[in-house]
Write a structure and sequence with these properties.
The complex is a heterotetramer. Chain A is 77% helix and 1% strand. Chain A is mostly helical. A two-stranded antiparallel ribbon of chain A has the order 1-2. Chain A is globular and about 60 Å long. By secondary structure, chain B is an all-alpha fold. Chain B contains 11 helices and no strands. Chain B is globular, with a radius of gyration of 19 Å. The model of chain B has no long low-confidence stretch (mean pLDDT 85). Chain C is of the alpha/beta class. In chain C, strand 12 and strand 13 form a beta hairpin. Helix content of chain C is 41%, strand content 16%. In chain C, helix 3 packs parallel to helix 4 and helix 5 packs parallel to helix 6. Chain D has 2 domains: 156 residues, Rossmann fold; 62 residues, no CATH class. Chain D has a 6-stranded mixed β-sheet, sandwiched between helices. In chain D, strands 2-1-4-5 form a 4-stranded antiparallel β-sheet, with helices on one face. In chain D, helix 3 runs parallel beside helix 6 and helix 4 runs antiparallel to helix 6. In chain D, 48% of the residues are buried. The model of chain D has no long low-confidence stretch (mean pLDDT 87). Classes of the chains: A mainly alpha, B mainly alpha, C alpha/beta, D alpha/beta. Chains in contact: A-B, A-C, A-D, B-C, B-D. The interface between A and B is large, with 50 and 45 residues.
Chain lengths: 342, 292, 405, 236
């Protein structure tokens, strides 16, 4: 891949470094404040249906961030994140349906279970790299729906029929719709998770992860316990995706094996790459991509919706090789440079 | 015993199909250093082209050659026109383009040829060879053709300058340019050859599973698994891997009671991953020894 | 904020006005219906691994186009809005909400798939929007008490399975049965219905069952295993591709069981021909629609109309696809319900009309099979006829059978 | 007319300019060396000649204008580049590596003869001809790189730090062989070396590069006598 790719990779890396930079500039602060205010006002401006769609954007955004932590920051591939999403979703569904827990308790449970699952999966995965890791994680995402259907687990999972759950009402007698409440709930969880990720990735841990990604041998020489870091990263990545799964289950009110096929893994991967690899804000664009690109494709051609979808993916890669967030950053950099020049 | 033999032969027959696909996978890997997720759908599309030729009355073996030739040209064009702009950006960008291609081929095939299954002729006689009751003649034919293709690939890579140049270009494009290899065309050539081998795989598979747009999906996956199990850098290893996956999957389904047919795919994949944990380059993979 | 609230209030007022207010001269309307138009929503997998079913959506759209060309229903044009869910339940929820809340359709018709419809089951009933003639044969769509807004159409899978079970109990009580089924809700519905139909004898009669996954490339290993069980009867619960594989493999292994094939895969052109007509002799199935590729219907009036319609409205369509027959027949049922609703196009009235179809002869149903519903009967088609394949066509065996509920 | 004529050659990595207008020429049959500190642009000069970096300016080789062409087209004129880091195809065998050198040649007999000649120069490579090239030692890989360049039947060889990472005795051996190749095969050479005294010993012309510009040029003898060069690069 030669010279060109090296320069692209280093550009990517610079962007990642900027995105998770230790200190935020004034511009970045104002950007974040503006984004949060926009996020808070959004449900007031659109219909319940749109609010529901944006809830899904946030949910998938969290899942994409999970994958981004693993792939973008630590350089490990995964085609298996649908599995962690499914574990999170089923944890929520089973807790709510069988044991009548309140929905908010399911999030920490889903997170912890996925953290453990991800960590355990990360251990053998340590020995695998690149393609082989892709195959192993792929096996995970193929196996998941089969296990969810498995006869002996049917008591909890509902087998092929899945589990239906009830959508929560707004608490404290708030006079807002279920959709709005769920949006705000998800929004707060998302802010929390994004803040944690930013905190985690900007400091020592983040540097260690990136060192492992860019040069594992050197990282080891620097005294970084690469095995522990890589497994833990898998765990944390799974945690994020699992919490997203739980939130997704609550928003959709239904889980079934067919909701968590390999195609979900692909969608999360596509969201990550088009949103922006190795960037925290890019993950939200990833969520937008997952929800809206298929709708756009359908608008272009319903008879061959997948052909339109595929074409869109390819065009994105042509015109935004660094993803939407990379595109925005580059555009901004070019603008300021031009301004300085004049 | 009879059941065991029957299962084993059935596994071998399908293993032949996986092996052929694994070979196509290795081919493109040798030439481009990448796995192409769209390869299965490309093979399916080639098979539809062959199907169309047959309905036009072209004799089977002419169809076979024509389909390979068309696929070769198609593969070269796809690389030159569609994949080229993202070459050398990042692996994930290329993966996304492959996913895009997969979706396009799948959708367009369904759009043109509809989704009802289509019978695809086999060039081999219907009667089982020597009156045996374990394995059909087409199944044997699949194994035979796979081995022939393997041998041809081996000869090509080992003994022709172009084959050598392709391997060099995939391994180290910068150095390859320095000896005058036109790396871009090597990639295109690799795509073309992989597409042609994929077409062979598709035409061998279709008589067994019936032709439809989703025909190759799972077969490509098994092909990947076989290639990785046997060693992605070694065509013979990949062919062995393909056969191994076919037999393994069949026997696990038949003889491991707790797993049964329900979890056999998962189990086979887990087993393969377990093997890879202990032999990260696959069973017969080339271990790259590098002095730093 | 204030503006928005005002807007909400006025929108609500408008909705109330539409529902209860003084109706216009022509009729009573709920959202999605007017003097000139009836909006019908539909969800189908046009993309993704299940996109084969997208054919049904296209066929229905073509049928409504024909209806509109003929002047519509009671003077109103059908506005058929069909959307794609890729057979993914979360997407189905999103799309159903889009149809109901954004497009404001009068009803959702023929949304396809069991998991996908399960995902919107509660939503549709909470919103009180008709969820009509869903495209799945699961047993759970006929619960008028619990889900008064949801109704199936085709014979439920368990019911069909019971027909085979009772045939077996009557004709071959000592059968040793092997079953191949798709490992999902559809396969399990058939399987459970069959076991239920056999009752106490199920344990002794069913000696082998093998599942397969939709992602499997072949079912050959399963067939080999089933044959080895020593069974003399085979119940084949598979979708067309796997059905063709199974029929061929059973024959090639020299196994000659009494072979029941589920209705899903009875198409002569789409399944039996690819598998080999000679290998299909003796298959037993149930039928409720005519098969366009079965030569016995060539001169049938319904079939001629269907061919004319295919030629005009779906010229590129596949005439050997049973989905095109299915789509035509189910759309005709919908047309019938809307006709009967007349100018009272409220959602409640639509459900009332859908639940009072008596002995309605929908085109392409085989003679003797009719659409019947009632306030407590949300299973429109329940009867079917056993048929045996003679190497060229399906030959009816006995009368039309209606399984007991 | 000189074999290689370079005028106003500039080279860039991204936005950064590394060469700032080089003018030099190279006589047929000679050995020329480029000296300079780390980062002066020596390696870049070689890469620029082969079109491996973005350039501006003119390069004529044997009368043909080659600047701006693709690497694979430039080398087909008869320029063999032995790159920094040797560029070994690690998964191929030693012999396959060598045969790749002759990839553009269409005369199997001559290629076969050249292969034997390389084995004469480097008998170690013959011993290891079927071994995976990645398993060769650093010195052997350097020999392989030179051998591969020779297999191209070049008129000009560009050598980038041939002594890098080699033991002193090996280095000497290698330079002897390079000298022999220059004499016997009439191959012109452009050598970039850290080890200036070694390079000057074999070269007949030399250029001194500082931050992308040629600051001194002359015959190897003259340069060796030059005060600044001696202080800065020869260390005596």
């Amino acid at each position: 891949m030669g010279v060109q790719s090296q320069s692209t990779n280093s550009r990517l890396r610079d962007l990642a470094a900027l995105a998770s930079g230790a200190k935020l500039s004034r511009l970045q602060w104002s950007g974040i404040v503006a984004a949060v205010v926009f996020g808070l006002l959004l449900p007031l401006l659109v219909s319940d249906y749109r609010t529901f769609q944006f809830t899904l954007v946030l949910v998938y955004g969290i899942a994409v961030l999970g994958l981004n932590i693993l792939t973008g920051f630590n350089g490990q591939f995964s085609l298996g994140h649908s599995a962690f999403y499914a574990i999170g979703a089923y944890t929520a569904a089973i807790m709510m349906d069988q044991w009548e827990f309140a929905y908010y308790w399911t999030l920490p449970a889903a997170g912890v279970i996925c953290l453990v699952a991800g960590f355990l999966f990360g251990l053998p995965a340590l020995r695998l790299e690149g393609l082989y890791l892709a195959l192993a994680t792929f096996a995970l995402s193929i196996a998941t729906p089969q296990f969810l259907k498995y006869d002996h687990l049917e008591k909890w999972t509902g087998g092929v029929q899945g589990v239906t759950i009830i959508k929560p009402d707004a608490p404290f007698g708030l006079q807002i719709s279920q959709d709005n409440w769920l949006y705000y709930f998800t929004f707060v969880v998302m802010l929390l998770l994004f803040f944690c990720a930013w905190n985690l990735l900007r400091g020592r841990t983040g540097r260690a992860l990136k060192a492992i990604r860019d040069n594992p041998i050197a990282a080891r020489a620097m005294g970084i316990n690469t095995a522990l870091y890589k497994s833990l990263t898998f765990g944390v990545s799974a945690l994020y995706t699992g919490v997203a799964g739980a939130l997704g289950a609550i928003a959709i009110q239904f889980v079934a094996p067919d909701s968590f096929t390999f195609f979900l893994s692909v969608a999360i991967l596509v969201g990550m790459v088009i949103g922006g690899i190795g960037s925290i804000p890019g993950s939200i664009f990833g969520g937008i991509v997952i929800v809206f690109i298929p709708n756009l494709a359908e608008k272009i051609s319903q008879a061959a919706a997948w052909a339109a979808y595929g074409t869109l993916l390819i065009l994105f890669m042509y015109f935004m090789p660094l993803g939407i967030w990379g595109f925005i950053r580059m555009g901004y950099a070019r603008l300021t440079r031009r301004r300085k020049a004049t | 015993m009879e059941l065991f033999l029957q299962q084993t032969f059935s596994g071998l027959a399908f293993g032949g199909v996986y092996a052929c696909m694994a070979l196509a996978v290795v081919m493109i890997y040798q030439a481009t250093d990448h796995l192409n997720f769209a390869q299965g759908e490309m093979a399916m599309f080639s098979t539809y082209i062959a199907y169309t030729l047959i309905t036009w009355g072209v004799p089977y073996w002419w169809t076979f050659l024509l389909a390979m030739a068309i696929s070769f040209v198609g593969g070269v064009l796809i690389e030159r026109v569609i994949v080229r702009p993202v070459e050398g950006t990042s692996v994930l960008n290329e993966v996304i383009v492959f996913i895009g291609l997969l979706a396009i081929f799948n959708s367009v095939a369904g759009w043109i040829w509809e989704y009802t299954i289509k019978p695809f002729p086999s060039p081999f006689p219907k009667e089982p060879l020597f009156g045996n009751k374990f394995v059909g003649t087409h199944d044997l034919g699949v194994i035979g053709v796979t081995l022939v293709v393997l041998f041809a690939v081996f000869l090509f890579f080992r003994f022709t300058p172009v084959g050598l140049a392709m391997r060099a270009a995939a391994q180290d494009p910068a150095s390859a340019r320095l000896v005058g290899i036109r790396v871009g065309w090597m990639l295109a050539l690799g795509w073309g050859l992989a597409a042609a081998i994929g077409a062979v795989a598709g035409m061998l598979v279709a008589p067994i599973v019936f032709l439809e747009p989703n025909m190759m999906g799972s077969i490509l996956l098994y092909g990947f698994a076989g290639a990785l199990l046997g060693g992605i850098t070694n065509p013979a290893g990949a062919v062995f891997g393909g056969f191994a996956v076919g037999v393994l999957e069949t026997l696990v389904g038949a003889y491991v009671p707790f797993i049964g047919s329900e979890l056999k795919l998962s189990f086979a994949l887990v087993l393969i991953v377990a093997v890879l944990v202990f032999r990260p380059s696959g069973l017969f993979g080339f271990v790259v020894v590098k002095r730093v | 904020m204030l503006n928005r609230r005002n807007f909400v209030v006025s929108a609500a007022a408008m909705a109330i006005a539409l529902a209860y207010g003084p109706a216009s001269a022509a009729g009573k309307y709920d959202p999605g219906a007017s003097d000139t138009e009836i909006k019908i929503g539909n969800i189908n997998p046009y993309s993704g691994p299940a996109s084969a079913y997208g054919t049904i959506g296209k066929a229905i759209a073509a049928y409504f186009k024909m209806v509109n060309d003929k002047g519509g229903i009671n003077g109103r044009k059908i506005n058929f809005i069909s959307v794609d869910d890729s057979y993914s339940p979360p997407k189905t929820v999103e799309q159903a909400r889009k149809l109901v809340e954004q497009e404001k359709v009068l009803l959702i018709f023929q949304s396809l798939g069991t998991p996908t419809n399960s995902a919107i089951h509660k939503y549709m009933n909470a919103k009180k929007v008709p969820h009509l003639f869903v495209a799945t044969g699961a047993g759970k769509w006929g619960q008028p008490k619990k889900y008064p807004w949801t109704m199936g159409w085709q014979p439920a899978y368990p019911g069909e399975a019971k027909i085979y079970a009772s045939y077996l109990l009557d004709n071959k009580p000592d059968a040793k049965v092997a079953i191949l089924y798709q490992n999902d809700d559809y396969g399990k519905d058939y399987l459970n219905g069959f076991l239920e139909g056999l009752g106490a004898k199920a344990k002794s009669m069913v000696i082998a069952k093998e599942p397969y996954e939709v992602a499997d490339p072949t079912v050959d290993p399963q067939i080999i295993k089933l044959k080895a069980s020593g069974a003399d009867t085979f119940f084949n619960i598979t979708t067309p591709k796997f059905a063709a594989q199974a029929i061929r493999k059973v024959h090639d292994l020299g196994w000659q069981p009494l072979h029941f094939l589920n209705n899903v895969s009875t198409s002569v052109g789409g399944v039996l021909k690819p598998a080999g007509l000679d290998k299909s002799v003796g298959l037993i199935t149930t039928q409720y629609t005519k098969d366009a590729t079965d030569p016995q219907w060539t001169n049938d009036a319904d079939m001629k109309a269907w061919h004319a319609w295919m030629d005009k409205y779906l010229p590129d369509g596949d005439k050997s696809s049973s989905f095109n027959v299915y789509g035509y027949a189910v759309a005709a049922t919908m047309e019938e319900v809307l006709k009967k609703a007349g100018d009272n196009l409220t959602r409640a009235n639509i459900m009332k009309q859908a639940a009072s179809l008596k002995n309605v002869k929908v085109p392409l149903l085989i003679p003797g099979v009719t659409v019947d519903t009632g306030p407590n009967d949300f299973y429109p088609i329940e009867c079917a006829r056993l048929a045996k394949f003679d190497g060229a066509k399906w030959v009816g065996v006995g009368d039309v059978i209606c399984p007991k509920k | 007319m000189a074999l290689l004529e370079v005028s106003k050659l500039e080279a860039f990595y991204g936005q950064t300019q590394v060469l700032r207008g080089l003018d030099f020429s190279l006589e047929e049959g000679g050995i020329t060396t480029i000296l300079g500190a780390n980062g002066a642009g020596k390696t870049t000069t070689l890469r620029a000649l082969c079109g491996m970096v973005r350039t501006r300016g003119e390069v004529a080789f044997g009368g043909a204008k080659i600047a701006g062409g693709a690497t694979e087209s430039i080398v087909r004129h008869g320029i063999a580049h032995v790159p920094e880091g040797r560029g070994t195809f690690v998964r191929l065998s030693t012999e396959e590596n060598l045969r790749l050198g002759a990839y553009t040649r269409r005369d199997p007999q001559a290629v076969g003869e050249d292969l034997e000649r390389v084995f004469q120069y480097f008998p170690r490579l013959k011993e290891r001809r079927h071994q995976q090239a990645g398993t060769l030692s650093g010195g052997e890989q350097q020999m392989l790189a030179v051998g591969r360049a020779l297999m191209m039947g070049p008129r000009l060889m560009l050598l980038d730090e041939p002594s890098f990472g080699l033991a002193p005795n090996l280095t000497e051996e290698l330079f002897d062989i390079l000298g022999a190749i220059n004499k016997e095969r009439k191959v012109s050479m452009l050598v970039v070396e850290q080890n200036a005294s070694l390079a000057l010993a074999i070269a007949d012309h030399a250029y001194l590069l500082e931050t992308g510009r040629i600051v001194i040029s002359g015959t190897a003898k003259e340069i060796e006598q030059d005060e600044t060069v001696r202080k800065a690069y020869l260390g005596y």
